[in-house]
Amino acid sequence: MTKAAAPSIDHLSESELIALLDPALLPKHIAIIMDGNGRWAELRGLPRIAGHAEGIKSVREVITLCRDLGIGALTIYAFSQENWKRPVSEINALMLLLEQYLQSEMDALIEKGARFRAIGQVHALPPSALNWVRKVERETAHLDKLMLTVALSYGGRSEIVDAVRRLAQDCKDGKVQPDAIDETLLEGYLSTQGLPDPDLLIRTSGETRISNFLLWQLAYTEMYFTPTLWPDFRRREALLALLDYQRRDRRFGAVPTPHFPPSGL
Length: 265
Ligand code: FPP
What we know:
- This protein is α/β, with parallel strands linked by helices.
- The chain has helices at residues 14-20, 37-43, 48-69, 88-112, 127-139, 156-172, 183-187, 235-246; strands at residues 29-33, 73-80, 114-119, 146-154, 200-203, 222-225.
- The chain has a single domain, classed as 3-Layer(aba) Sandwich (Undecaprenyl pyrophosphate synthetase), CATH 3.40.1180.10.
- A 6-stranded parallel beta sheet has the order 3-4-2-1-5-6, with helices on both faces.
């Protein structure tokens, strides 16, 4: 539920938008489905991979914004399990782009204090991309200003199946008693273990689906859908998403907090 309609902020500059943000109400964790790269390229008569390459600039800007605002966790959906169905040429180009990104960006991530981690069936990646994933994970493991999680060959259902399989094994081995299983215990088996659930999910390009992303973790997340294509989703667009988020009334299933104690209590 949103609060009363706010005055239009479309004409405001980036610094004016930042000034409108309430630092106490910023999300602790943002998740993003970066969609629309292909359409961005096709609209310009460019090959689809040009859209992915341009999308990397948006990734950079959003990481920097999170770092500047003190948002501690950012999880981005870079490649889903379903994306393996794309033409081999696009998959190869995306993997190369990932590798080049990690290679060229490692120092910048370290400088920003960002810890990088991949989730998903990462073992399915080509060996050279996987080597870079592991290298950047190692080199940034000590950093804690921003937790950057990149979902690669990721699917939410298989993440849950994998967690349940390992939990069942631990039960079989006598390490866990079935009666002790609760939400917190199960969460410890998910690949996002240790991260707070996302407060805000952003999906670009006008699609309004979750597409098998963080199915467990998004239970109470606020959703922000924008028609903007991912390569056009830069700092300003991210600020608009944050301002929209700050106007939400998050109740987590409870009733609204009364402004005054109800009479008779
Ligand atoms: C969806 O757009 C986007 C992807 C499948 C890949 C996202 C990847 C990047 C932004 C670059 C790589 C990321 C990192 C972290 C190095 P789409 O191709 O489905 O667009 P469409 O719906 O318009 O076809």
